[in-house]
Amino acid sequence: PDNFFRVLAEGQSLAILLCAILFGLAFAALLRPQTNALMGIFEAIYRTLELIISRVNVFIPVLAFGMAAYFVARTDARTLHAMGSFLGSFYLFAFLLSGAAFLLIWKKSGLSPASVMSALKAPVLISLTSASTTASIPDTIEAMSSRLGFSRGIVELVIPVASVFMRSGAALYFSLLAVFVANIYGRPITSQEFLLIWVGASLAAFASAGNNSVAAVGFAGMVLSLLNLPIEAALALFLAIDLVCEGPRNLLTLLFACVLIVLVSRGLPSERVETAGSASLRTLEPVRFVFSRASV
Q1: How far apart are alpha carbons 228 and 172 in whole angstroms?
Q2: Which of 34, 81, 87, 275 is 20 to 30 Å from the Cα of 145, by its Cα?
């Protein structure tokens, strides 16, 4: 990018990540005395923004209600009926894979299912109600490190990168879109073409990072072109239902990023912060110092 501040304002995920990597490399090349002061400033800014975001998240239910009202007002019931089979398949696969990811996180965290659900509640709600895969990053970092105990350094590295490079939800969306369009035209799909769909969906998911719904649906053409299928016939239908597909896409991307953290954090010490209640239950033994007259 030719302007670092513009990509931040426009929310271009790939450009933001490139800027962060370039800045990080230059920052790491400096000597420690030169970076100490700037590190303190960055830490203060980070914690301030984290606090602001946590307060703003109180209004997530209002946001969810507004999005539901907007979708109901803009979408024709006949469109939902025509796309019912696609929506049913997409929601089924998305929530089955999300459930499998949650089970793995629960098993590796060593906590109860209720505790894991409570820790991930905020990032999950943000993912379901936000159009951006990066909106839940601060809450996910806090949940996976302080509340679930995984290495904060790994969490802070993996979560932002995974939101751009490991877009599992978008890959599933493009894969099912290709199968749906093939069924519309009565085109049978061979086993080799399923492999093409998998590769094309992965590339399309990566290329669509940071784009809005209209542009994201357009990237489906990358997958359909591998099968020599047109997208014009179903483009308007997919644009009409894309709003209700954003939530499951973001949720799946979030949970698969958390699964990656679970796998790479294996064997590292827990960074879980104990609550006041759990700390009070622990019995602390007093430390005694005994001196003789000679030693005194």
Answers
A1: 20
A2: 34
Among candidate residues 26, 17, 54, the one with its CA nearest the CA of residue 162 = 17
CA 5 – CA 234 distance, rounded (Å): 37
Task: Answer yes or no: are the C-beta atoms of 21 and 161 closer than 8 Å.
Answer: no
pLDDT in tens, 146-199: 888 888 888 888 888 888 788 898 899 999 988 888 888 888 888 888 888 888
**The pLDDT of residue 278:** 46
Model confidence over 37-94: pLDDT tens digits?
A: 888 888 888 888 878 877 777 777 787 778 778 777 777 777 777 788 888 999 999 9
Can you tell me the distance from the alpha carbon of 25 to that of 7, in angstroms, rounded to the nearest whole number? 19
Write the DSSP assignment of the chain as a string of letters. Answer: ---HHHHHHHT-HHHHHHHHHHHHHHHHTS-HHHHHHHHHHHHHHHHHHHHHHHHHGGGHHHHHHHHHHHHHHH--HHHHHHTHHHHHHHHHHHHHHHHHHHHHHHHHHTS-HHHHHHHHHHHHHHHHH-S-TTTTHHHHHHIIIIIT---HHHHHHHHHHHHHH--HHHHHHHHHHHHHHHHHTT----HHHHHHHHHHHHHHHHHTTT--HHHHHHTHHHHHHHTT---HHHHHHHHHHHHHHHHHHHHHHHHHHHHHHHHHTTTSPP-PPPPHHHHHTSPPPPP-----TTT-
Residue 96: per-residue pLDDT: 94
Q: Contacts for 265-269 with beta carbons within 8 Å, 24 or more apart? A: 265/150, 265/151, 265/154, 265/155, 266/108, 268/150, 268/151, 268/154, 269/151
